[in-house]
Each structure stands twice: as structure tokens, then as C-alpha cells.
Design a protein that fits this description.
With 159 residues, the protein is an alpha/beta fold. The chain has a domain of 86 residues: 2-Layer Sandwich (Nucleotidyltransferase, domain 5), CATH 3.30.420. It has five helices and eight strands, in the order ββββαββαβααβα. Strands 1-4-3-2-7-8 form a six-stranded mixed sheet. The longest helix has 24 residues.
């Protein structure tokens, strides 16, 4: 489960808020947009430490063994996803759940998604239909570790 920093009291968001999400497989920063000057205020910082684990840190030492047929011929089981892919998929679901809950409880007007291209695809795949309708723009660029001013500069002037 990702570690989540709770918002500071001055970063609560108004009804009909605009969210900006800068994300990759290891971190998702969620901002609100000030209705006065369009500045970004960080609302949440979701972390996914599982993506940084090596396969040998998260799975058993040996692959599972599968026996097939009457002759008992066996082979090693190969997972369909690597650990890193699975961790990214799980984190994308958690980010989308966060956005879905915010949409239901806060009546979001718009969401701007800025994400590393592969992770943007996972976000698209995991957003529920109602929340997907709030997405105003998607930008396939990893700005997660950049300052808020750089993230704001990548967005349209009027949000």
C-alpha cells in the first residue's frame, strides 16, 4: 500500500475543483489549482515503494513447477507480468481509486493527467467511467520529480 501524506489545512480544495496529477510508477503528486491565480497547491503525495524492489526481494527464490500430461513432463512457471509491471498496475489502480473517491465526494470539474507514457496508459485503463469524463487533458511526460512551477508551465495558461 502506498504511503500517503495528508493534505495541509491550507490545501483543501473547493467544490468543482481542478486536479493536476503528475505521476509515474513510483510516485503520484496530486495538486489543486487556485481559482484566483492558477497556481498549484500540493494536495497529496502518493508513494509506491514496491516498484523499487528487485524481483528477488519480492518473490520466492524459485519459480513454481508445473507438471502436465500423463508422462509427468514438467516445466517452470513463468509469470505473465514481472514484479515491476504488477507493482505499477497496482499503484495505478490506487491512484485511480483516490481520484474516483475525490470525484464522488468533492464534485471535481476537471483532471489534468501528466504521466510517464507507460503509466499514463495504466491510468487510462483503470479510471472509472465517471472519473474518466473529468479528464480535460493528458500529457505523456514524466514531471513527477519537477517543482510545481515546472508542472504548471506544462499546462494550458487557463485551467
Amino acid at each position: 500500500m502506498p504511503r500517503q501524506y495528508t493534505p495541509k489545512p491550507h490545501t483543501t480544495h473547493p467544490r468543482h475543483a481542478t486536479f493536476v496529477v503528475a505521476a509515474d510508477a513510483g510516485r503520484a503528486r496530486i495538486f489543486t489549482v487556485s481559482p484566483d491565480d492558477g497556481a498549484l497547491a500540493e494536495l497529496a503525495d502518493l508513494l509506491n515503494p514496491a516498484v523499487r524492489l528487485q524481483d528477488h526481494d519480492s518473490v520466492s527464490d524459485r519459480r513454481g513447477h508445473v507438471v502436465q500430461g500423463a508422462a509427468g513432463v514438467g516445466h517452470a512457471f513463468e509469470p505473465r507480468q514481472s514484479h515491476e509491471e504488477h507493482a505499477a498496475e497496482t499503484f495505478a489502480k490506487q491512484v485511480c481509486d483516490y481520484l474516483g473517491k475525490a470525484h464522488k465526494s468533492e464534485d471535481l470539474a476537471r483532471i489534468y493527467l501528466l504521466a510517464e507514457p507507460a503509466f499514463l496508459g495504466l491510468l487510462r485503463k483503470n479510471l472509472d467511467h465517471a472519473t474518466r469524463g473529468c479528464v480535460a487533458q493528458e500529457i505523456a511526460s514524466d514531471l513527477t520529480r519537477r517543482p510545481a512551477a515546472d508542472i504548471r508551465a506544462a499546462l494550458p495558461k487557463v485551467l
